[in-house]
């Protein structure tokens, strides 16, 4: 019964599956080996292959050299040795010439005669395996060739040592040439002469050299392995430090940084990239934590602020229910309804401010595409404040950079407001100015003077970088330094700068940095009496930052509080960033 195609496929697939499983297991085993081990093993393998290749090359080179030397000696001395065999056999130098073997074949007599035979230690005789009939067996006259040795132990009286036997068993290098005699002017060919030299010394030299190369190769491999392990361990030590640092970072310590190395190295470049990434991640986590903390505080403060009007509404509603059957109930009802209406109005304002902040936080609610005359906006605020506080003295002027005393600052020249136009959201800019003026009206005496000033200043700082500054005096000092640099190199951005300075009670130093925090008021009870929600200046900060500007509060010389605001004249720096449509407000 023949196996089906399906059974054949199964039979074929099984070995393939086994091979695939073995290959996967080998790859998994290789992946489980550390990088340092792989490098050391690779170096050892390369050293072993290199030393083996060098040893074989040296062995072959020396063997060829010795063989050429032996051939040259045979060719140059063969005839001389043959002609002096009688003298060599009977001379005192016979022992020094026993390496030569001479055998002559006489064609007339059809007989071969050994003319010179080397004798080794203990009487061991070694001779080349040559024919007795003068046959060359395919070899060429005058060209050396190699033949095996024939060892004779007939005259040996004791067991020979191993080294002597090895020497005797070494092959022979033989050269053959014709010999004859000259009668008068006639040359008669007599036969063939074989002259040979034992290769024992050559083989011994090659074997000694091979052993030496093997020992040196083993020493090189071992020493190279030890040195490579040390070098690899030292070279990979930065990676070990990176690994330890990564483990600490994984445990939650984002302040860890990779030890720096020269940036022209791979490890140094990797360390710089990782440190940059870690700084970004740490900053992102800090910002996220700050946002989370602000959100928690915001929810807590919003709940607290909403609880107050809700409690008032609930209390007056209960009071109305309790007193509606008593005499003069209608008058008491009107009073309760008035309080409920006031509380609901305050809650409405609070909810609108919260909604406005939420939109600003999401990047919505601003359409910074309208040309706005800042001088008109500030002049309208001057008129509004004059209408609210007719007795208040309101001054105006031009704001410009002043470094007369060596320290850059903003100086005011009294006079009308200069004509300055910015590309911004007109509604939001009016809201910013209105909130600032409203604070001046609520929290400063009605007869205290106020100065509004406006100008244009060049600053060596991008709007995006400016929007990241914290609203404090240190950031304002940095901006003034950037404005001083702009005067020197004329590289930077033009900003509209406005200042609102009052001479009221001011704000303590420790509280000025908190003015722009949500629901922050220096005196909460007084703020409620004045109708504030604690969100006005937070909205001001959010609107200014949405325009990539800057605002901060500083002390007015002579007492009071000053708000300084910077807005870029144009929004060209936004590039191709999409602008939100007005209907998204």
Automatic annotation (TrEMBL):
It is an enzyme of class 2 (transferase). It catalyses: ATP + protein L-histidine = ADP + protein N-phospho-L-histidine. GO terms for molecular function: phosphorelay sensor kinase activity. It comes from the Bacteria. Residues 1-23 are annotated as: Disordered. GO terms for cellular component: plasma membrane. It is found in: Cell membrane. Residues 301-571 form the Histidine kinase domain. Its main location: membrane. PROSITE patterns: HAMP, HIS_KIN. The keyword rRNA-binding does not apply. Its EC number is 2.7.13.3. The chain crosses the membrane at residues 39-58, 212-232. InterPro entries: HAMP_dom, HATPase_C_sf, HATPase_dom, His_kinase_dom, HisK_dim/P_dom, HisK_dim/P_sf, Sig_transdc_His_kin-like_C, TCS_sensor_his_kinase. Keywords: Kinase, Membrane, Phosphoprotein, Transferase, Transmembrane, Transmembrane helix, Two-component regulatory system. Residues 233-286 form the HAMP domain. Pfam families: HAMP (PF00672), HATPase_c (PF02518), HisKA (PF00512). SMART domains: HAMP, HATPase_c, HisKA. PANTHER family: SENSOR HISTIDINE KINASE TRCS, SENSOR HISTIDINE KINASE YKOH. This is histidine kinase.
């Amino acid at each position: 019964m023949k196996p089906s195609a399906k059974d054949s496929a199964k039979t074929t697939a099984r070995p393939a599956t086994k091979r695939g499983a073995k290959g996967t297991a080998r790859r998994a085993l290789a992946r489980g080996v550390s990088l340092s081990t792989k490098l050391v093993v690779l170096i050892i393998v390369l050293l072993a292959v290199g030393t083996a290749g060098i040893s074989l090359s040296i062995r072959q080179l020396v063997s060829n050299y010795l063989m050429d030397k032996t051939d040259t000696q045979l060719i140059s001395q063969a005839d001389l040795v043959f002609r002096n065999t009688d003298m060599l056999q009977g001379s005192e130098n016979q022992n020094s010439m026993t390496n030569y073997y001479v055998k002559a074949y006489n064609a007339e007599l059809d007989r071969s005669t050994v003319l010179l035979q080397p004798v080794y230690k203990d009487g061991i005789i070694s001779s080349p395996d040559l024919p007795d009939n003068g046959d060359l067996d395919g070899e060429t006259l005058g060209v050396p060739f190699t033949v095996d040795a024939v060892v004779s132990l007939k005259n040996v009286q004791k067991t020979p040592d191993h080294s002597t036997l090895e020497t005797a068993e070494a092959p022979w290098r033989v050269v053959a040439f014709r010999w004859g005699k000259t009668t008068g002017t006639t040359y008669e060919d007599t036969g063939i002469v074989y002259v040979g030299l034992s290769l024992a010394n050559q083989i011994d030299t090659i074997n000694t050299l091979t052993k030496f190369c093997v020992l040196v190769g083993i020493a090189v491999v071992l020493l190279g392995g030890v040195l490579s392990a040390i070098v690899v361990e030292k070279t990979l030590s930065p990676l070990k430090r990176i690994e330890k640092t990564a483990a600490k970072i994984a445990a939650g310590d984002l302040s860890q940084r990779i030890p720096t190395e020269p940036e022209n190295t791979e490890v140094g470049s990797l360390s710089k990239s990782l440190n940059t990434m870690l700084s970004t991640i740490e900053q992102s986590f800090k910002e996220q934590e700050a946002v989370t903390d602000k959100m928690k505080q915001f929810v807590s403060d919003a709940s607290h602020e909403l609880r107050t009007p809700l409690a008032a509404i609930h209390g007056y509603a209960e009071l109305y229910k309790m007193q509606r059957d008593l005499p003069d109930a209608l008058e008491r009802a009107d009073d309760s309804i008035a309080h409920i209406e006031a509380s609901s109005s305050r809650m409405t304002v609070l909810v609108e401010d919260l909604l406005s902040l939420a939109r600003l936080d999401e990047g919505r609610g601003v359409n910074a595409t309208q040309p706005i005359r800042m001088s008109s906006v500030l002049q309208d605020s001057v008129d509004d404040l004059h209408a609210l506080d007719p007795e208040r003295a309101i001054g105006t002027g031009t704001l410009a950079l002043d470094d007369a005393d060596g320290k850059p600052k903003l100086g005011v020249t009294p006079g009308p407001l200069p004509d300055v136009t910015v590309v911004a959201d007109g509604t939001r800019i009016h809201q910013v100015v209105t909130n600032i003026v409203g604070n001046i009206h609520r929290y400063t005496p009605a007869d205290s003077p106020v100065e509004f000033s406006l100008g244009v200043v060049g600053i060596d700082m991008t709007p995006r970088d400016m929007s990241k500054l914290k609203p404090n005096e240190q950031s304002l000092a940095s901006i003034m330094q950037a404005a001083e640099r702009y005067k020197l190199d004329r590289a930077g951005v033009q900003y509209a700068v406005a200042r609102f300075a009052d001479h009221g009670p001011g704000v303590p130093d420790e509280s000025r940095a908190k003015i722009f925090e949500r629901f922050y008021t220096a005196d909460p009870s007084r703020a409620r009496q004045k109708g504030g929600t604690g969100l006005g200046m937070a909205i001001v900060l959010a609107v200014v930052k949405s325009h990539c500007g800057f605002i901060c509060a500083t002390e007015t010389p002579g007492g009071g509080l000053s708000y300084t605001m910077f807005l870029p004249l144009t929004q060209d720096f936004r590039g191709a960033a999409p602008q939100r449509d007005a209907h998204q407000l």
